[in-house]
Design a protein that fits this description.
GO biological process, one term (chains A, B): negative regulation of DNA-templated transcription
Oligomer: homodimer
Number of helices of chain A: 9
Number of domains of chain A: 2
Keywords (chains A, B): Cytoplasm, DNA-binding, NAD, Repressor, Transcription, Transcription regulation
CATH class of the largest domain in chain A: Alpha Beta
GO molecular function (chains A, B): DNA binding; DNA-binding transcription factor activity
CATH topology of the largest domain in chain A: Rossmann fold
DNA-binding region (chains A, B): 14-53
Number of strands of chain A: 10
Distance between the termini of chain A: 35 Å
Family (chains A, B): Belongs to the transcriptional regulatory Rex family.
CATH superfamily of the largest domain in chain A: NAD(P)-binding Rossmann-like Domain
Strand content of chain A: 15-25%
Radius of gyration of chain A: 20 Å
Shape of chain A: globular
CATH architecture of the largest domain in chain A: 3-Layer(aba) Sandwich
Structural class of chain A: alpha/beta
């Protein structure tokens, strides 16, 4: 398989999300034009992105929603369950533990860590809170996880990331504003809400809708 | 100005974010190759995206960081302050009110709303909580805002969106999983954390790093 660019993967995830909606709505076929409109992309881009992986469309017919969705999930590795470990059970952390979309898409929290000793040992959303110092012990048991979700304060982020890496975890979803310094073989994805606000600012300023609006 | 595609605006926001980091680090010049690497894009894509707006690069030299940043901010409408109104002061809402990145990038909360009458009248992060029924009154005063940030429960999202629209607000950053039904002239940007998790799943599955890692 060719190496695909970073941004194409984000687009594939977006296509998969909208295909899942279509599938849940009972839609069996979708044209590249309609899928493009739903995703805020253009049809040529969609055809190009999907061409990285093979031939999914039928000329004059469109894409078979379920086939394309399954193929995308397989390519992206989202046709399985991924276990998440939360670091930082503050307001954001608690909100993340309660997000139904995670479980619906196969992302399950199996562990949560906090520095607050009053929190350690208590349960939030059915997950027992551990001390982040204990990560190596926790991941030997049912608290084992694949991806760390970093929602600590900025001051603890780098320290926590090092502990995650030392425990052998190779993927971090980073909600903190810190640029984490980690070894090359550790994957870090940074979440930044302000980037999404920019699409709204642009739309309000120019009157041209560039948002990723869901289908109605 | 040409209409630029939705996804290009998200990329522009990403370029602006990394240019801001370079600027804060005192870097004056950046090559399209280096900027591309930082953003996880490719240099040809960056040159194409920036070509929508004019000529920013100097052949053989690169881009002047500050000039390009200011031009992007002007194009995107982020060279000014935008006021935010929060709907739903639960765990996520409280976390959003406390996010320093918002204020650092010119996004200031001026109002917050919740259905919980025990919360109404109290202050969170210096913002007084109002009832969402009172939105029309609130936006006549210092609580006036440009963009609604929707962080209510899923069951209240559509109802709340209608109230926002009726009050004359035309932009919604939607953290709920609901596909909002709003008039054509209202801009909605949906935030979905699971899409970012997919880049990590792909990287873990294939061993190929497609994350938007920050520069080290």
């Amino acid at each position: 398989m060719h190496k695909i660019p970073n941004i194409a993967v984000i687009r594939l995830a977006l296509y998969a999300k909208h295909l899942e909606m279509l599938h849940n709505d009972g839609v069996e076929l979708v044209s590249s034009v309609k899928l493009a409109k739903m995703c805020g992309a253009n049809p040529a881009q969609i055809r190009k992105d999907l061409a990285y992986f093979g031939q999914f469309g039928v000329r004059g017919v469109g894409y078979y929603v379920n086939d394309l969705l399954n193929a995308l999930k397989e390519v992206m590795g989202t046709n399985r369950t991924w276990r998440l470990g939360l670091f930082g059970v503050g307001n954001l952390g608690k909100a993340l533990l309660g997000f139904e979309q995670f479980a619906q898409r196969g992302f399950i929290f199996t562990a949560a860590f906090d520095k607050d000793i009053d929190l350690v040992g208590t349960e939030v959303q059915g997950i027992e809170i551990s001390q982040s110092e204990d990560i190596k012990e926790v991941i030997k048991g049912p608290g084992c996880f694949d991806i760390a979700v970093l929602a600590t304060g900025a001051d603890r982020a780098q320290d926590c990331a090092m502990r995650i890496v030392e425990a052998g975890i190779h993927a971090i979803l980073n909600f903190t504003p810190i640029r984490l310094v980690v070894p090359e073989n550790v994957f870090v994805e940074n979440v930044d809400f302000t980037v999404r606000l920019h699409a709204l600012c642009y739309s309000l300023t120019t009157g041209s809708d560039v948002t990723q609006r869901h289908p109605r």
